[in-house]
Amino acid sequence: MTAATRPVAFADAVHEHQDEVFGVALRITGDRDAALDVTSATFLNAFRAFHRYDQTRPVRHWLLRIATNEAITYVRRRGRELRRRIDVEQATALADPTPAPDAESLAREDRARIRSAVSLLPELYRVVIVLRYFNELSVGEIAQVTARPASTVGVQLLRGRALLRSALESRP
Amino acid sequence: MRNDQRDAELFDEIRLRRALRLEAAELPPRLDVAAIAARAEAARPAFLAASLMSTAVAGLAAAGLVALVAIALPSVAPAVASDLFADGIQTLARLATPASALLSLAAQPTIPIAVIAALAVGIAYEFAQRRERVVEVTS
Predict the structure, then answer these.
(1) ipTM of the complex
(2) How far is A3 from chain B (nearest CA, A)?
(3) Residue A51 contacts residue A98 (beta carbons within 8 Å)
């Protein structure tokens, strides 16, 4: 039995995966408060369903699935798909409020641009991009988490990357 | 060319990973497992009550529908049956009118079927004769 498939207690699952769950929620919703709400809802739902969860399977994927669904529901409910904008200055201030050297400042600006572009992707592509490049999941694992066929996930990753590239090139 | 493209993709992927990574300032406050459990327990009675209520409402609605059908059926059934019977008779009458004309023609003793058959054989024979090849006689 590997670490990923070892039976886990709920408290262990929370401690091990809360940052990752929060991260996926933050990158999908693009909003810190929303991400905190989504994280809270994810663990609340997980607690209620923990007795039904098959403990021979990785708890990480199960939690990410709940978190992804919660984040998607949140985004849809708020209807912010088209009009959402990331406040780049706020994101930069949030990352590090101290003055930074130029190189670091440029790198931070680049990260903010990429995050903004990711947050403006259509939800279909944003979810797979976040699961791939934030959670470092393989295509097969993303297929499990999102309940989409692996071939579909592969295509969505390609299209998502292409959309990101063109968005970043059009806004240098 | 292909290598350049692959390098660009790899660069994109590295940039993406770096950009999406959580920074120290972004990390959320630690979650309290006991608080989650308490919230779940607190919400449970309301959830149970809501599910019981919705089940009761659905059951009542279904029972009402069944009762309505049971009451309405005896009063509606004769009317529906008579309408169906009238429609059936009307359709039968429509079909019977052209059918009776054809049947009476077939049963007419003044035009025996043998005569019609003989006529058909004659016509067929004439057609067959016309199709025969004409042989030119040159003597």
Answers:
(1) 0.71
(2) 21
(3) no
